[in-house]
Amino acid sequence: MASNFAFLHEKFPELAELGLLAERYLHADPPSCLMKAGLLCEGMIRVMLAQDGIPLPERCDAVERINILQRRDVLPPDVTSAFHLLRKARNRAAHEGTAPPEGKTRILLQITHSLCGWFFQTYGDAAYRPQAFVPPEAAGAPPARPTDAGRDEALADQAVARAGQAAALPGEERRRRAAEAAGARRVSEAETRYLIDEQLRKVGWEADSENLRHARGVRPQAGRNLAIAEWPTDAATGSRGYADYALFAGTRLLGLIEAKAAHKDIPAVLDHQCKDYARHIRAEHLPHVVGEWRGFRVPFLFAANGRPYLRQHEESSGIWFQDVRSPAHAPQALHGWMSPAGLEELLERDTDQDNRRLAALPRDFLTDPDGLNLRDYQLRAIEAAERAVREGAQRALLAMATGTGKTRTVLGLMYRFLKSGRFRRMLFLVDRHALGTQALEVFRDVRLEELHPLSEIYSISGLTDRAIERETRVHVATVQGMVKRILYSEGSDRMPAVSDYDLIIVDEAHRGYILDREMSDEEQLYRDQRDYQSKYREVIDYFQAVKIGLTATPALQTTRIFGPPVFSYSYREAVIDGFLADHDAPHQLRTTLSEQGIHYKPGDTVTILDPRSGEVADSALLEDELDFEVDDFNKSVINENFNREILREIARDIDPEDAASGKTLIYAVDDRHADMIVRILKEIYADELMDTDAVMKITGSIGNRRNIDEAIRRFKHERLPSIVVTVDLLTTGIDVPEITRLVFLRRVKSRILFEQMLGRATRLCPAIAKSHFEIYDAVGIYDVLEPVTSMRPVVSNPATTLDQLLDGLRVMEDPAHILDQINQILARLQRRRHGMDAEARRHFADLTGHSPEDFAEQVRDLPPRAAKELLLSRREGIALLEEAGAGGPRPIVLSDTPDALTAHTRGYGRDNLRPDDYLESFARFVRERRNEIAALDIICTRPSDLGRDSLKSLRLALEREGFTERQLNSALSQLSNREIAADIISLVRCYAVHAELLDHEERIRRAVARLKQAHTFSRAEEKWIDRMEKYLLNESVLSVRTFDESPAFRERGGFAALDRLFQHRLESLVHELNGYLYDDGGLAA
């Protein structure tokens, strides 16, 4: 008979010969058959890599070669699993000289044949259609002895050599052909069972559908977790009433599995065969039954066809599961199998009872001053998350500003969940090792009940723990680690089960992308940023668990995964409530070059740096002008004189040896730029006889993970370094409260990234009496991040920017004009996207929720007016495209043009105004908006009626317009040459009704002194008056409600108790005190 592999001969004759040899040895020498089949599969993998010109790392074994193709989406998931299946079978045959029974060897040969069909469609002839496998006959005698292994390997080498000379297909086309061929691949029910055996074994079941069968006498045993094949029932449906697998944890029957061929849809199998089997368990097997629910004697039912879960083909992929104990439990597709322990825990779980325990659990430990000592907003965040969980939400998002204690909040939440039994095992997922280390420190150091930290109450597994023990209650892991364990687990005998965790908490949940070079060791896991986002989502979706995300800056993709936030607490609110530091008006530094740019004329010679090789060379004479603006500085052109002038000016304000003044974080463009900054600063401070160890670079290039963690630890906990230069490594998630200065020598156009950068300095630090932080802006970052206000139509012009095209689009109404403008924008977008670097693509996806390619496609598919709205709503992301060049690292111009500092000013408010203009705009706002904002009118006319909520609302309204208490006082101080610290009430009254401007503390102390002079208080009463004064110094507003709302008063009995102490005069005393507070010479109108 003809070989099943003959179709390969035309294009891959060497591979066809290996297939023929495998067939010949099937009956007489199964180990040799599997070795030939495995070598054939390995040969196909090597041919794929060679034909597509994919470079390989220096050390690259068979597992890694398969993984490389999988990461590029060339190998669909089920094809990947099949290749690994053959790889393992070949290894066992080669190293142990054994093979499974002939029936299994035949199945493996059949799988090899189906893989060859897929391979030939993808890399040979796309028009080929797979043929049925015909088992080889036993009559054909094999060669007298196995063929020489070296000759067989030579065949594979010849196929690889020829493939290396073939033209490679574009990546997208190759992936398309691979996916189509995978859909056409013939997968038998026998192969499905073989794959399911392997999958079950990896999550803790003993599974072998050939040997662990009921017909072979295999029965449940205590201490073993058996998946027994062909379990008989009294059902009349299916294969004579035999369930494909019965799952036993010890002697308890917990589940049934029905396996179908890969081309069959599977949800209906649950409703028919599986349920029929579960109702008709034989009488002799009743001792294994753990209960009966609505006639079902097995609680958990599964149906599968071996294909990994695909959202686009949900009905024909994944593992379909139903808990039949309640009619409210709908069937659902899982991404993997449940473990024996997972099924046992699910059986024991009573969610309704656990929710009741959670609701009844006391909250005292959350506010214990010696323990968590959580604030009001943190308690509200916990309440919101618990409410969502009790109401059945599977996903929830908590949005809390950087520095507001997300980790402590979630620690309280985790402890309540664990103590109530609502969740039994949690995965705390981070995307950077440093964030995981930071979380583990909190879990180890923060005391909960009876002064015990979480790590002493419950078992916690750390970042290096791959396998979790049954007693583990919290596991801290990185996204990268879980990607390896879940998506690239074929090199291992174990992988996580979907039931391993019942709660996943995702820290920094906005981070669905690679943020910095710390991940350089892990980046080979991802093809590009879109691939990272996809795998990030796959890890989160994999587990059958409730997911709670934590973020400071919800991005579009964040809400797509977790939904809109169930609780939000913004940076503005935190500053107003006194929990975060505000920043003063930014220092704006300008030099001759930053104002005028760097320009070269035709005929000039410029020095060029090749960023790939690091080589420096002089260019030929320029034929055209070459112009650089400040946006290009340190990216396209490097001028050390500019950096030196800026750093010299900044160094005048920074004493690196003065611990009381705090620490400084400088943002550089890239690693090369960071090195330059460190060198210049060391030279400047050496001249001033200061310790140059105060300056350090912390980027992903400084060494391995241990070196990076040690550098971050020193920055956080030691006196030196006090000045750190970074690129992206410290943009998010690292807490160093001592940071009081941020220096921007790098321009970014992503508001989200900018806010994250600012977040590094927002934490209060009582140890150094930190009240605010300073920003030094040398690259006009505030100008870039200002909203566009000029709105004028533009004509079609190659020189027109995307920004101008969007301005024109905004004012257009005619659909034809809108469509024409959109086409221009799309054309410009398509050109620009090719030059976007990884950072730009990352920020674009963050701001728009899509890659540039997907975003353009989405715009193109919309009607003109809807497309217009979408483009204008994503304007900030589109602005990033202006930065994109021609693709790949451009040569960098090294400029030695002299430079000099021209200005060091402060820019106030949203428009970077001078102090006098800023105060005038504030006065105008107060006058013009007084009748629109109720709190403004109350402050002006009856200030004693002002409540805490009204004041907070007013401060938020003012901050939205750029008027902050810090900047208003700073502007006044700069004009008057004296330190001013007035509160917002005094500032408003000063500019609205010309009241006397008093410092906050002076106003409070004056009012309290007048109250004491007007009354004779007992010693106990005077002590409480002093406490009211202390409260006012922090809060500005005191009312009758305060005594029942503030813990400082509420814990002593609240208003009722204090009113008795003051002989029922407390309300009138509060009213009198408020009158003194605002009796400041102002005119009420």
UniProtKB/TrEMBL annotation:
Stretch forming the signal peptide: none
Gene Ontology CC: cytosol
MF-aspect GO terms: ATP binding; DNA binding; type I site-specific deoxyribonuclease activity
EC assignment: 3.1.21.3
Region Disordered, annotated ranges: 162-183
GO BP, one annotated term: DNA modification
Keywords: Endonuclease, Hydrolase, Nuclease
PROSITE patterns: HELICASE_ATP_BIND_1
Annotated ranges, domain Helicase ATP-binding: 387-572
Protein name: Type I restriction-modification system endonuclease
Gene symbol of the encoding locus: hsdR
